[in-house]
Amino acid sequence: MSVRQHVRVGGRVQGVFYRDTCRRLAEERGVAGWVRNLHDGDVEAVFEGTPDDVDHMVRWAAEGPPSARVSRCTTTPEQPEGLTDFRVLPDAGPEPD
Fold first, then answer.
1. Domains of the chain: total
2. Does 85 reside within a domain?
3. What pLDDT is attached to residue 44?
4. How do beta strands 86-88 and 32-37 pair?
5. CATH number at residue 35
6. Which of 4, 8, 19, 24 is flagged as catalytic?
7. Residue 56 belongs to what domain range?
């Protein structure tokens, strides 16, 4: 059984190897999805996999790597899409007005 969580974290989360660490940990746990920087300084990620592995990644996201300072972490459950790998996506551009 697969589950999916959409995560958004804020604080000091860019420029601290957040995305690369997230990718490495997701691959180690067999979690699929993606992570990217947002224009406002937040980081956004999607995790798909077993409930235990996705829960582990969500808990990690709320902490981040050692040099990060996560001040908030929001999660939204979504329907799994059947993703099969984990990728670092290009940074998201500014949202349209």
1. 1
2. no
3. 98
4. parallel
5. 3.30.70.100
6. 19
7. 3-77
Does any domain span residue 86? no
pLDDT tens for each residue of 9-64: 999 999 999 999 999 999 999 999 999 999 999 999 999 999 999 999 999 999 99
Q: What is the pLDDT of residue 69?
A: 98
Active site residue 87: no
Q: Do the domain assignments include residue 62?
A: yes
Selected catalytic residue, list 8, 37, 59, 72: 37
Asked if residue 87 is part of any domain, the answer here is no
H/E element, 86: strand 86-88
Residue 95 binned pLDDT confidence (cut-offs 50, 70, 90): low
Give the per-residue SS3 of 23-76: HHHHHHHCCEEEEEECCCCCEEEEEEECHHHHHHHHHHHHHCCCCCEEEEEEEE
Active site residue 29: no
Sign for the pseudo-dihedral over CA of 50, 74, 35, 6: positive
Answer yes or no: is pLDDT of 73 > 80.
yes
